[in-house]
């Protein structure tokens, strides 16, 4: 099944790592891609960290992923906005991963008449910043968010994430956010362009049916669901679409690569 696949995209949390520890088969999966010089990117909807930060965190878990092989929703958002040609002023609710990406794309970060309000993930949402975002959007700024995930993981359980805060702002402004991260195919297309890959010869590995698998399917990719993250096998029947393959862990994907 993988003989015609020449490039791979992989989610990070729930596929390669969980709570800072490498998941079963992840080191072998990455080693195989490196050894065979197969183009790949590790994708994440997390916009908190820069690729350099994430590379270091993966290294601490025993996984070697160069920063240029990491594609975040923050990078996708900055790339998308830079192509809009609608001004380079943005008010940002987020952390270094997002602010750095926007700076590098030529944006000025300001609360003075911004063209965009850009909402990303942060470990400490400021209600004052959210109120300012509401006022700026109501005044005409375009509302962009890095990803629609309602919750994120923590050692103490799920915590509110970008999607939940975006919903709060939407209720206050009656303006819907445009979400750039998965499952938006925009993030996948930008990732494919980054490594010079084509959808018909690329596969995606993920642990979420409603983000990873949906994004891959809508982008025309071969999709591989692993059961080490958010989705259980019995959950698959709740969705009207199906992944190309289902694996207990990414070790199953590695076996296909090595066959």
Short structural description:
The chain is α/β, with parallel strands linked by helices.
Please supply descriptive tags for the structure shown above:
single chain; five-stranded parallel beta sheet; 9 helices; six-stranded parallel beta sheet; 259 residues; globular; alpha/beta
Describe it for me?
This protein has 259 residues and is of the alpha/beta class. It is 36% helix and 20% strand. The protein has nine helices and 15 strands. It has a six-stranded parallel β-sheet with strand order 5-4-1-13-14-15, sandwiched between helices. A hairpin with a 6-residue loop joins strand 10 (151-152) and strand 11 (159-160). Helix 1 runs parallel beside helix 9. It is globular, with a radius of gyration of 18 Å. It starts with 6 loop residues before the first strand and ends with a helix. The model has no long low-confidence stretch (mean pLDDT 94).
What layout of secondary structure does this protein have?
Elements: E1 7-11, E2 17-18, E3 21-22, H1 26-35, E4 40-44, H2 51-60, E5 70-72, H3 73-82, E6 89-93, H4 96-104, E7 108-109, E8 116-119, H5 127-138, E9 142-145, E10 151-152, E11 159-160, H6 162-173, E12 178-179, H7 185-195, E13 202-206, H8 209-218, E14 222-226, E15 245-247, H9 251-258
Parallel strand pairs: 1-4, 1-13, 4-5, 6-7, 6-8, 8-9, 9-12, 13-14, 14-15
Antiparallel strand pairs: 2-3, 10-11
